[in-house]
Structures are given as structure tokens and as C-alpha cells.
Specification:
6 strands; two-stranded antiparallel ribbon; 231 residues; alpha+beta; single chain
Amino acid sequence: MNESIPLSSDTTAANCYSMPAAPGTRHRDALRLLFILAGGSQALEQPAADGATHLFQSEKRLMAIDFLIRYPDYLADALLDLCEAEHDGELLRIVEAIFANEEPSVRVISMVRWHYGAYQKIETALATLHAFGLVRPMKLVKDGANKRYDYHLYPKAFSFLQTAIAEVPDLEWYRDRVQLAMRVAFAKSGSKLKGWQYEHDEYSNTPQGAVIPSIAGKVKARLDRLRGAQT
């Protein structure tokens, strides 16, 4: 987590967003993770000694929320869970819009399954955010063995995202999807969110090292059933 990548001062939100869309693209991943860290952080009671004002807990939770952003079909399924639990018709309309906009096809950023589920190395993206002075990763060690990574966020992170959306309005999609993902992730630990992922056979049966497949067809069928039940 100590890696730092210096970037030129003319690197803007606009040219970060326009980088190639291949998985692992540093600037795209960094920007997406920043939206998640900002949207899922809590304000500190008092600013930290280094000026940080917000805290995001933990790396496992970050990866689990990132999965929901990268797989709109899984996010849609989680929103349908909420829709049924809370009897919230607005969530049903949101999921309908996700499919109407073909997000499970055009917005997916695939992940590979490893020993502990969906995974992609995020150190380079986090180092980029650290180099900009937006985020500081912190390694916490408990009981001499258990490790957890938390993240401090600085005021500059939030102002940067506001500027990014002003420069590239399409980035509102990330802000809005993080807000939806946080409805799913609210008050849930990374372990609990990971456990929900494993409840899907397509996910849990993915061989290690293979790309996690879409569940769009199954979720669309579920959406149709729920929509039919309301008519």
C-alpha cells in the first residue's frame, strides 16, 4: 500500500474518464473506487491530524461494493431483494431502468473469482488516489495477526468528484449507482456482502481463475415476475 505513482498536474477528470475501457485501466478504476470510497464513508467526529475528514471501512467491503457497481445485474438482484423486503415500488422502477438501458451488457466490468471471491488488484488505483492527495490507505493489525485496510478521505476528494461531474456529466452514473449500492450495503460488513454474493450459484460455482458470469437472464425473469404480480 506504500506505492505512489506521480501524475502530471494536467491530469483531469475528463481525460481520466476517457482512458481505454479495458479491465485494469488505472485511471478509470481509481475514479470508480473514489466514488465508492466517498459515497460509503462516514464523517469523522473531528478531522484527523493529517486533515482527513472521512473514513471508509474496510477493503473487503470496498471490494464487495465495487462488485455491485461492476455487475449491474447483481446490483439489480440485490435491489429486488430490498424491493420485496420493503415493498418499495420505486426500486422496481429503478431495476426496470437498469435493464431498459442495457446496463448488464454495456456497463459490466468483469471480475475473476479467486480464493475469497471476486477479486482484482486495486493497489495501483489506490496509489493513484494517494498520489493526488485524495485518499490514504491505512493497515490496521488486530490480535497480532488479523489485518484490515481502512481509508482516510480528504476534503479534496469530495471537491474533485464535484468537479469531475461538472466536467463530465456522464460520471453522474457512478455517483447514482454508488448511492443504490449503499442502500444494499448500508450497515453491512464486507463479510456479509460477500456472503450474499456466494448465495448465487453462478458466482459460487465459478472455477478459481475464471471470469464470474452474468446473471442478467435470471434477474430479468425475476423482475418480470414481480412486475406481473403488481399488475
